[in-house]
Amino acid sequence: MRLLVVEDEKRIADFLSRGLQSAGYAVDTVNTGGDAVEMVHSTEYDLVVLDLGLPDMDGLQVLEKIRNRKVIPPVLILSARDSVDDRVRGLEQGADDYLVKPFAFVELLARARVLLRRGQPTPEKLLVGDLTLDCIRRKVTRLNENIELAPKEFSILEYMMRNRGRPLSRTMIVEHVWDMDYDGLTNIVDVYIRHLRSKIDDKFPVKMIHTVRGIGYMLDAPETAAPQASAAPAEMA
User: Fold this and answer.
1) What CATH number should be reported for the domain holding residue 108?
2) How far apart are CA 26 and CA 13, in angstroms?
3) pLDDT tens, 174-188?
4) Which residues of 222-237 are buried (b: 16+ CB within 10 A; e: fewer)?
């Protein structure tokens, strides 16, 4: 999932970015309202974390411009404005939640997860064959065996399971999971796919992750896997 943090204080922006990335999300950060509006209109975000005290415009103006989009991401306001009137105004103008500074990161993360679940018309659990991913508890099992995944591994697997049977390019995976553009040189996707294969495929006779030659990777149950996809050995990932 991809998040946008709109915060002009670099220390707070860096703190939020590091924390959310550690939780497994891809994060973009901007420090002005104008940049925020431009990013929201050019990129599909799952959540916007919006500071109200921006240097070029009030955060509520940014919120109004965001709400003009046809597809609207959930918005979590961060603000030092702690009066009841301020909170009511923010919620009435379309924010989905309002968190007053200073805040505990664990609370922000919990609220963000609630909004992300609310914005996703998908089931709490994803199932592909005998592989199960619990989106809320962030647990993965195969044949009832628990599989421990790092945050990025979980995010890649979730993305692949949500796109079951669809070939995903390395560019698509990087842009969805990491806060970076794919430069055509990095092998970061191949490294993580190799990690995933070692955890969800190597111990089991039926392979889930398939290499789609010339494109990237796909996850599917073998009985419905596309004919052009082949399960490559881990060392070829």
Assistant:
1) 3.40.50.2300
2) 14
3) 877 875 555 654 688
4) eeebeeebeebeeeeb
Pair 149, 170 in one domain = yes
Burial class for 149, CB neighbours closer than 10 Å (0-12, 13-18, 19+)? buried
pLDDT the model gives residue 120: 54
Find out whether 45 and 4 touch, Cβ atoms under 8 Å.
Answer: yes
Six-digit token string for 161 = 């399971």
Residues 6+ apart with CB under 8 A from 227: none
pLDDT in tens, 22-76: 888 889 999 999 999 999 988 888 899 999 989 999 989 998 888 877 677 899 9
Q: Does residue 26 sit in helix, strand or coil?
A: strand
* pLDDT score of 180: 59
Choosing from 102, 119, 136, the residue where a domain stops is 119
Please tell me whether residues 97 and 7 are part of one structural domain. yes
pLDDT of residue 223 exceeding 70: no
Prior bond of 102 cis (ω within 30°): yes
Based on DSSP, count helices (H) and strands (E) in the chain, helices before strands.
Answer: 8, 13
Query: What's the angle, vertex CA 161, arms to CA 174 and CA 66, rounded to 5?
Result: 60
pTM for this entry: 0.57
